[in-house]
Design goal:
This protein is α+β, with helices and mostly antiparallel strands and about 325 residues long. The protein is built from 13 helices and ten strands. The protein has three domains: about 150 residues, Winged helix-like DNA-binding domain superfamily/Winged helix DNA-binding domain (Arc Repressor Mutant, subunit A, Orthogonal Bundle), CATH 1.10.10.10; about 25 residues; about 150 residues, Endonuclease Chain A (Endonuclease, Chain A, 2-Layer Sandwich), CATH 3.30.870.
Length: about 325
């Protein structure tokens, strides 16, 4: 919550605390004529109209109506109070020195709930608990204690930040120690596949891939490839090398090679069908199944696995260069 909002809220709570909404109760209304009551309301509210007008920016109406009260309680909840705590706190601002049983009765909540909320407010130092024999009475501190509560939270956060900073070197050592451990991420469904492809396309490493493309791809994946993946690859400065099955779909995709800074080779689909896609980029290898009924992806991060897959890709690349259709790329070395 911004400082101005805090000040407006405290201003409002101070007014409620000092004046008391219930001081203008139904019984009070009934004892005056409408004109007299109107005059008394103006006199009572006049010194505080500026604060009320400020609060109108929250509710759009007089903050003492139902909507205004809901907004004020919402602001209290932003300060860290629960719904019950904000209800009890607002009640105690205008009703002094009450036991939990009476608070619960007035708010129509169980006594145990009211007592728990009161005790939490005591811990937050905005409500005072006074013990009288077997009964504990609760009374709200002046609303300026809300600022004190925020200051205490700020100090606590600063201490936590200091503690974390002192632990960071040790935590970073632990994190670094996992670099030699194989890391594997799995993704399910179309959204998972898109996340995997985003990891590939956002990489700054050269991309080596064997791709399966089909007209039977789901509409969502087709839309992603057309509107996001391909445009990003066109802006990508890193080189890409790909192996495709020789069919009409992949030939259309191969036409984009120059725009996507890519070299692609074709291999016979009958003899060497590609039914999944895989990418090698940096120390990562990803595998993806495009099957409509079973879209799954996995990313493995490991230097040795990536190296092994790269060796296999190089062998496949050299083999693909033996086909007549790829002779124009025979001098390209990986």
């Amino acid at each position: 919550m911004c400082i101005n909002c805090q000040q407006r809220l405290v201003s409002f709570c101070n007014y409620v605390y000092n004046k008391g909404i219930q001081g203008l109760s139904h019984a009070h209304y009934a004892s005056h004529s409408p004109s007299t009551l109107s005059f008394k309301l103006c006199v009572a509210f006049a010194p505080h109209m500026h604060a009320l007008w400020q609060l109108n920016s929250y509710s759009g109406k007089n903050p003492y109506n139902t909507n205004g009260m809901i907004k004020i309680k919402s602001l209290l909840e932003e300060l860290g109070l629960s719904k019950n705590e904000s209800d009890v706190y607002m009640h105690l601002l205008v009703n002094k020195n009450l036991p939990a049983s009476q608070i619960g009765k007035s708010l129509k909540i169980p006594r145990s709930t009211a007592k728990y909320a009161c005790d939490q407010l005591v811990q937050k130092n905005i409500v005072l608990a006074v013990h009288s024999g077997a009964i504990t009475y609760y009374e709200a501190y002046a609303p300026n204690h809300l600022i004190t509560m925020l200051d205490a939270k700020r100090i606590e956060l600063e201490k936590s930040k200091s503690t974390i900073n002192s632990l960071l070197p040790f935590l970073n050592q632990l994190y670094g120690a996992t670099d030699q451990i194989v890391k594997m991420q799995t993704f399910s469904g179309e959204n998972g596949m898109i996340r995997m492809l985003e990891d590939v396309v956002n990489s700054k490493h050269t991309i080596y891939s064997a791709l399966y493309l089909s007209e039977n791809l789901s509409p969502k994946i087709k839309k992603y490839l057309k509107n996001h993946y391909i445009p990003k690859r066109k802006l990508h400065k890193a080189r890409a090398y790909s192996l495709f099955n020789d069919n009409n779909t992949t030939k259309k995709y191969q036409d984009l090679d120059e725009q996507m800074n890519r070299v692609s080779l074709l291999i016979p689909e009958d003899s060497y069908p590609l039914r999944i896609c895989y990418h090698i980029y940096g120390n990562k290898v990803s595998f993806t199944s495009y099957d409509k009924n079973n879209v799954n992806s996995v990313i493995i991060t490991d230097d040795h696995i990536a190296c092994m897959q790269m060796s296999m890709f190089k062998m496949a690349w050299q083999f693909a260069l033996t086909f007549e259709i790829n002779q124009k790329y025979k001098n390209i070395k990986l």
